[in-house]
Fold each of these.
Amino acid sequence: QSVLTQPPSVSGAPGQRVTISCTGSSSNIGAGYDVHWYQQLPGTAPKLLIYVNRNRPSGVPDRFSGSKSGTSASLAITGLQAEDEADYYCQSYDGTLGGWVFGGGTKLTVL
Amino acid sequence: EVQLVESGGGLVKPGGSLRLSCAASGFTFSNAWMTWVRQAPGKGLEWVGRIKSKIDGGRTDYAAPVKGRFTISRDDSKNTLFLQMNILKTEDTAVYYCTRVPGGATQADNWGQGTLVTVSS
């Protein structure tokens, strides 16, 4: 069981908008720790997609956006493209565990 | 360009030991905090542990499943990160990724390609 909870899968047609939720608790997201998102394309290493809740590293399209509220965070992807098909993971810090925690991952399928 | 290249993975029997290395280039390694993250076959990401830069104290922290068995260290003169894994269990089977953490941050901004560790009799 992952400390952060994500839906196992989401799907959408090309051009559509999808969101992926990440639910934590008062010892991680709710404690004010930042949330980060990673994209893992099939057979590759994860790549930082969103950092500190809503910031995009250089090179990440603005179709990807992040938000955080209370004990949850969300990743939104607009204008879905076939190349977005991947696993997405949220990550934060847990003050009780004293280390990083990840969500279980969400598989995005572009129909 | 930041590059992280892991090596040292392989097949090991339960109870055995293995040391992973991560060769870093393209940035000032001595200033960087570094982490190890693993991914069991077909599963999600799991944080293994982190080492701070020596200038920030060099402290190490570990996830509960590996604490007392795994040790993270660094050789700043060789720009290399290590993960010493002892008393290996079958559940330690995973791809192990070396990652860079921007100073004081809580995210990994660069990842290696990973090295596979298989613990099996």
Amino acid sequence: KNQVEQSPQSLIILEGKNCTLQCNYTVSPFSNLRWYKQDTGRGPVSLTIMTFSENTKSNGRYTATLDADTKQSSLHITASQLSDSASYICVVSLISSGSARQLTFGSGTQLTVLP
Amino acid sequence: DAGVIQSPRHEVTEMGQEVTLRCKPISGHNSLFWYRQTMMRGLELLIYFNNNVPIDDSGMPEDRFSAKMPNASFSTLKIQPSEPRDSAVYFCASSLTPRNSPLHFGNGTRLTVT
């Protein structure tokens, strides 16, 4: 069964500190992995996308890593800001035929950044 | 770019009533998705359209749920009759067809069925 598991479920850090969120998946055959940020009351917004051959992808203070051998990804947030408080969702895409798109969503990590 | 537009933002209705959720995708996007989000189950795909044609509706929970996409700029998700367990946030998302294209989500409709 294709699954995406994220840890921790929730995390509280102080403003200015760094943090790392984890995503483990069993999706196969793997197409790509994407991290989304979801602010309270809003829809998810894509942060990064990584394909099989990519190990690291950065977007400002966000850096995602991917180890396709161990099927693990991480999202590192540097110098956290209050606006980073949100749910971070890992989404893995399955290679599929035709026009169908098969995505498996993790349950998210709820990050709270305190002043 | 106005993004994906959903209406209404909030809907409160009584059990048994019909509910219609609306979505306007980003212009030029040819894929449209309806998702449901709850605390217990996270984001679940309900139905996926490509070029206005339903491709995968296996996530539609019951016959009470139906979705249409009459043209490239409008889609509806209808629940008839609604039940309390349908209470959730319903998101519409659109994208270009290539698999690496990101999903662009609307801000959702929070549905409460009493």
